[in-house]
Specification:
The chain is an all-alpha fold. The protein is built from four helices and no strands. The two termini are 35 Å apart.
């Protein structure tokens, strides 16, 4: 069977195909116009805004869990609460990054994209929860910081460690099908 070296869709527009397509990807990927492209600077700024919102979600959930249970400032309960808070922030992150930060042509099946997002996020969670757990459990409040704020500072340390990893994973793998 012979394939057309310059395939077109039903409207006759030229399309780009990839040797890496699978049943989860659409067979055609239309090139976006210049108005659909988002600059790297804009993406970084938007990722930062989304990150700030996610950090607020993370800290609010973490501190509400600590406040309600009157435990979880360190150790295994801190790791559990931090994981719950991180999952809440990741769900928010997916919705906001998919619809705003990296928005463009939709060519990847949502299940594949969501799976890739979760994979990157789980690796980011290991970095985030692991580093924040270490700070909360094995270091002590310094610089005159009230011990009640130490879990939040530990959470911010985790956020800082996972920030760059997540951006690179989302931009160059999860949302790579989108023309930037």
């Amino acid at each position: 069977m012979k394939t057309d070296p310059h395939p077109t869709n039903r409207r006759g527009d030229h399309i780009v195909t990839s040797p890496f397509t699978s049943g989860l990807l659409t067979a055609e990927e239309e090139l976006p116009g210049p108005s659909q492209r988002i600059s790297l600077t804009t993406q970084v700024v938007r990722f930062g805004v989304v990150g700030a919102i996610n950090t607020a979600v993370d800290l609010i959930v973490l501190n509400v869990l600590i406040l309600i249970t009157r435990t979880g400032q360190r150790g295994a309960s801190f790791a559990l609460f931090k994981t719950i808070a991180f999952v809440c922030a990741v769900l928010n992150s997916y919705v906001m990054n998919r619809s705003w930060t990296f928005k463009s042509a939709k060519t990847k099946h949502p299940m594949l994209e969501g799976s890739q997002f979760m994979f990157v996020s789980v690796l980011g969670a290991v970095v985030n929860v692991g580093s924040s757990w270490y700070v909360a459990t094995f270091t002590h409040p310094a610089w005159g910081i009230d011990p009640r704020w130490w879990p939040s500072l530990a959470a911010l340390v985790g956020t800082a460690f996972s920030l760059g990893f997540n951006f690179l994973g989302y931009k160059f793998w999860v949302f790579a099908h989108r023309k930037h």
